Amino acid sequence: MSSIYAGAVCTLAAMSARSATDGFLQIPGEGRGNGPDTWHAQVGDTQRGRAAVLEIRSDFSESDASEEPLLARAWTYQESLLSARLLMVFSKGQRPALRCADRIRRVDGGLIYACPKQLASLQANLSDFKKDVASYECEQEWATIVSEYSRKSITFTDDRFQAFMGIVAQWETQLRPKFGVYLAGLWSKTLRCDLMWRPVGVSSSRTSHASYIAPSWSWASRAHPVYYQSRGEIWDKDELAQVVGCDIVPMDLQIPNGSIKSARLTIECVSELIKVSEAQRAASSNSCVGNMKTSDGSVQFIFDDAPQPQDVEELWLLSIAMEEPYHSSHEIGLGVTQIAQVGQGNAKLYRRVGLS
């Protein structure tokens, strides 16, 4: 499906569509009450014998395109990004607008100033990034896309990866030397930084999906929005961590970037076992942020779940990358807790529970 939108000359977007069964066309005589109000005024010039009709419309005020129902849906996210041209018909009767490679214009010549990321041209952006793959801006672009996609609604959570495959395909085709192999929402060559996603809103209730969608270290495992700090403030160091291996088992071998059956990530890194006291659990019972005592003092730890899970009595703090706020660099990493032992060698399996 994504190749259809990527190959289309122009995609018609019904911005008012809240589902796949909605559209923008109306039966004549119905639904006009929701359209714009229009007034006409006769403007005359008695001295020169000229007259004109002035039209005043209620929809001439600027509207926020990001509030359109179509942009809240996960499947339409990649469809709009992949389209070379997007002809948008808005929900409140505003003049239609055309988005091409580098700008958006209304049919009356006016500009749309508040343009959400989803209405940009992915193809145009990737072409620019290919000219300078060393820049961290292309990594920031991926982080921004992930953050926006995590906010989109989807009817069937099992479709979370399928509705994203078109964007992944473009990245694989054009930026593979920079990003490497796709791994459950992350990339092999930027994996250590890709692991540093954060939950949005530390005071809001949140959890993972009820059914298995992705491994705990992937942002796609969460049933809530996530975000990344600026890629200019985070960098990885080989001295801190090395990715030993990553195994992804897809549901369908013919669709390697689709739904996942299982996944396992092995990292060699500096780590420290942290005990979570009863006092710390009680203090954070209604929150997801706590201070963990370490050998170097203490660190602020943000749990992925909120409120903080009360069954976590200890966790391993893994040093994965470096962060530089105000030129004071320090290590950041993940918190994991053991969930099982498998195999003849009793290999220990862990799941991510948060980050420092």
Protein model, in words:
- The protein is built from seven helices and 18 strands.
- The longest helix has 15 residues, at 165-179.
- It has 356 residues and is α+β, with helices and mostly antiparallel strands.
- Strands 11, 12, 13, 14, 15, 16, 17 and 18 form an eight-stranded antiparallel β-sheet that branches. Strands 1-4-5-6 form a four-stranded mixed β-sheet, with no helix packed on it. It has a two-stranded antiparallel ribbon with strand order 2-3.
- The two termini are 39 Å apart.
- The model has no long low-confidence stretch (mean pLDDT 81).
- Helix 3 packs parallel to helix 5 (165-179).
- The chain has two domains: 1-21 and 61-120, no CATH class; 136-355, no CATH class.
Quick overview of this protein structure:
This is Heterokaryon incompatibility domain-containing protein. It contains seven helices and 18 strands.
Q: Topology, please?
A:
Elements: H1 2-7, E1 11-14, E2 38-45, E3 50-57, H2 74-82, E4 86-89, E5 97-99, E6 104-106, H3 122-131, H4 137-149, H5 165-179, E7 182-183, E8 186-187, H6 191-194, E9 198-199, E10 226-227, E11 234-236, E12 241-250, E13 260-275, H7 278-283, E14 289-294, E15 297-303, E16 314-323, E17 330-342, E18 347-355
Parallel strand pairs: 1-4
Antiparallel strand pairs: 2-3, 4-5, 5-6, 7-8, 9-10, 11-16, 12-13, 13-16, 14-15, 15-18, 16-17, 17-18
Protein name: Heterokaryon incompatibility domain-containing protein
